[in-house]
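Figure 3 (text version): structure tokens given as input.
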């Protein structure tokens, strides 16, 4: 049984190795040929196409159809060629298309559609420099792959025959050369294992088997000697074990008294550990005995890290992630020392649980982040400095203002990082010494190219032995500007109320003037009996009086007075209508009428006359005659138009080109359910930055005292919030500006904005 097993194993091993090597080589050669197949096919395709383009140029030039076909058919004898197409540019030969029939024979076809995996190439046919046509060649790797596959199976068959012959020879050689001597040695070793050490080993071979036989003889003699020595060693070992148990008992007492988990291990196998170690990881001593404890007590990532530390003999301490028996992961710190233990070099590891420490560090980190977020979320610049003027704190607003990060600023002098606050450094030292808060208001600071007004407050740090201060810088530029604008707005409201009162007072005497002038004109005309009666009493006729009035221009003067009076009355009426408080009611109005009335009001505006003379501006009206009426509050819409006209006049008068005539173009049109109004001027225009902020409250490009910056923002809220519309602007520098208003037509759309109307009125102080 032994001989058969050994023979079979050796035979199978040799055959298997040979088969694997030969088969692997065959597969490797087949795979390499298969990988080179596209390159080989591409080269064949290139050479064949080049050869065809050269072979065909003479018969194509001579219009030899038969010779052309013979050349194509001769090339088609290559089974790798799937199809050949020859296209000619002129002559009676037009196109040759040859493909493969079902029996794989070359045959002419009407057209050819390439299949998947086929390679294609095209070559021009030249005769001299003249292009005669083009040849297209299609090749398939199908037959090359079949040839490679056939070669591979042929080699595989040869390998099988070679293996069969090799098995027979191996079995014969092994049986004669190895099996017989080994069977003899097996019989002897069986007797020796039974304690019969007087066995004779008769193997005279000089090869390895003979050496093995001599080794058996030496082993037999050595076993006899070792039996004697072993009995002596057993007695000595018992004494050593007694001492070792006493030493281990002492070590266990000391290790259990420590606050750290202590473990002695050899390549991860625990030799000794204290009670805290098993409690820390949740295992019992029996569960870890004889096992590699590292994969059980740390995570896989930490195990890789620990192996690197062990390989480099790093004593630590280093932190890894521990793992309890129930899968709970927790941070631990490990220190390692190498020592001798029972005659072998081992590692002693001290392990400390860092859960509470990490929790405290995380809470401290969270607290620091929370305090930093509080400081960074403040819109003020906060800079902490020590008593030497070096920066200790630098919040996010300081980074945004100076463009310098906190890492770059901390530790540097305040005058170097923020030179604008150099004057505040002396006050910082005074605040620290006096322990009093110092504050300066409306201090101009140069931030970039802009001068901003700021409040600078210095808070001394006077607790926990810290010497330093916190500098707080608040940008109050917009607040100061808003305060100035509010004062200006109050003045404007007072002037507006005064103008409305004056218009109301003017209206009464103006009505009397118009009425008396009309009566005067009537009493100088023919046709009234009373006029004729009074004229006769005075010794004249009414005809003479009328004729006298015409010659002296009295009647035309009366007409001029009436016309001027009506214009004045119209101006007063528009002013009263515009200044009258709205009642929050939406009514249908024609926008063209509102625009015309606002234009008349703008033409009589004193401020416009004084600065721009609005009546000198050319106004072009492009009204849609079929424009429907819009449900709106007329007073507010007039306010929007008047603000746009004023801004347009200011923009056009700012143009320095004396040849440009100020022109204001007003268009109206109907868009779906909206009415669109465009107010376009040919003024100075505006850049992109101004265009983005044009509807912001209190934003103005006019000099201080000339504008409040509220006109367009109020207009925007009137259109968008009060009327549910839309307001945009299109402009570029030097090309004027075009404001586009869209208002809904249907009353329901306007009525839905009642709440926003009240809100907007409240915002505007109505």
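Below: residues designed for each position.
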């Amino acid at each position: 049984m032994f001989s058969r097993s050994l023979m079979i194993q050796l035979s199978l091993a040799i055959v298997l190795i040979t088969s694997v090597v030969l088969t692997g080589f065959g597969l490797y050669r087949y795979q390499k040929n298969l990988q080179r197949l596209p390159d080989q096919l591409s080269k064949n395709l290139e050479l064949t196409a080049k050869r065809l383009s050269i072979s065909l140029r003479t018969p194509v030039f001579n219009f030899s159809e038969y010779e052309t076909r013979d050349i194509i058919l001769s090339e088609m004898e290559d089974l790798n060629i799937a199809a050949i197409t020859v296209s000619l540019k002129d002559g009676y030969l037009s196109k040759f298309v040859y493909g493969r029939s079902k029996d794989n024979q070359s045959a002419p076809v009407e057209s050819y559609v390439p299949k998947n995996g086929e390679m294609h190439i095209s070559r021009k046919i030249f005769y001299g420099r003249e292009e005669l046509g083009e040849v297209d060649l299609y090749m398939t790797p199908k037959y090359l792959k079949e040839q490679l596959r056939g070669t591979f199976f042929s080699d595989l068959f040869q390998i099988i025959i070679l293996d069969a012959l090799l098995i027979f020879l191996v079995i014969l050689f092994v049986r004669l050369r190895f099996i017989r001597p080994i069977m003899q040695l097996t019989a002897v070793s069986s007797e020796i294992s039974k304690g019969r050490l007087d066995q004779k080993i008769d193997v005279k071979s000089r090869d390895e088997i003979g050496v093995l036989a001599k080794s058996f003889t030496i082993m037999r003699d050595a076993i006899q000697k070792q039996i004697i020595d072993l009995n002596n060693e057993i007695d000595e070992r018992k004494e050593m074990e007694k001492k070792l148990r006493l030493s281990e008992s002492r070590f266990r007492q000391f290790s259990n008294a420590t606050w750290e988990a202590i473990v002695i291990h050899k390549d991860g196998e625990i030799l000794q550990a204290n009670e805290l170690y098993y409690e820390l990881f949740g295992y019992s001593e029996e569960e870890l005995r004889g096992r590699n404890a590292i994969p059980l007590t740390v995570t896989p990532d930490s195990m890789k890290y620990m192996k690197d530390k062990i390989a480099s003999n790093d004593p630590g301490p280093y932190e890894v992630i521990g793992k309890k028996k129930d899968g709970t992961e927790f941070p631990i710190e490990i220190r390692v020392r190498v020592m001798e233990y029972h005659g072998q070099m081992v590692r002693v590891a001290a392990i400390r649980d860092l859960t509470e420490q990490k929790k405290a560090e995380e809470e401290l980190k969270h607290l620091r982040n929370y305090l930093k977020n509080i400081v960074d979320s403040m819109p003020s610049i906060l800079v902490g400095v020590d008593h030497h003027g070096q920066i200790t704190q630098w919040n996010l607003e300081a980074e945004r203002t100076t463009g310098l990060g906190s890492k770059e600023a901390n530790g540097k002098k305040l005058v170097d990082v923020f030179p604008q606050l150099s004057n505040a450094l002396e006050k910082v030292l005074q605040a620290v010494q006096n322990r009093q808060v110092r504050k300066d208001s409306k201090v101009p600071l140069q931030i970039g190219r802009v001068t901003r007004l700021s409040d600078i407050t210095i808070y001394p740090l006077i607790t926990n032995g810290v010497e330093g201060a916190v500098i707080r810088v608040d940008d109050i530029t917009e607040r100061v500007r808003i305060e100035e604008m509010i004062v200006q707005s109050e003045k404007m409201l007072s002037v507006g109320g005064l103008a409305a009162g004056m218009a109301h007072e003017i209206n009464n005497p103006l009505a009397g003037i118009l009425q008396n002038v009309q009566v005067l004109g009537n009493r100088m005309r023919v046709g009234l009996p009373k006029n004729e009666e009074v004229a006769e009493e005075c010794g004249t006729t009414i005809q003479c009086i009328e004729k006298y009035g015409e010659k002296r221009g009295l009647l035309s003067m009366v007409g001029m007075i009436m016309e001027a009076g009506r214009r004045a009355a119209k101006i007063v009426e528009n002013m009263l209508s515009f200044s009258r408080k709205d009642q929050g009611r939406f009514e249908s109005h024609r926008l063209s009428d509102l625009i015309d009335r606002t234009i008349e009001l703008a033409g009589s505006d004193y401020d416009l006359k004084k600065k721009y003379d609005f009546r000198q501006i050319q106004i072009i009206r492009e009204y849609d005659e079929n424009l429907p009426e819009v449900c709106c509050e007329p007073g507010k819409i007039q306010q929007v138009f008047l603000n746009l006209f004023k801004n347009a006049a200011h923009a056009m008068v700012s143009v320095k080109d004396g040849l440009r005539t100020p022109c204001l173009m007003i268009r109206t049109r109907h868009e779906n359910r909206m009415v669109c109004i465009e107010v376009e001027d040919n003024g100075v225009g505006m850049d992109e930055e101004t265009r983005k902020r044009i509807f912001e409250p209190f934003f103005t490009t006019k000099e201080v005292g000339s504008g409040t910056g509220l006109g367009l923002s109020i207009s925007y809220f009137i259109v968008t919030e009060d009327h549910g519309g839309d307001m945009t602007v299109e402009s570029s520098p030097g090309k004027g500006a075009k404001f586009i208003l869209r208002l809904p037509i249907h009353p329901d759309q306007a009525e839905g904005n009642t709440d926003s109307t009240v809100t907007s009125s409240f915002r505007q102080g109505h």
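The longest strand covers residues 329-341.
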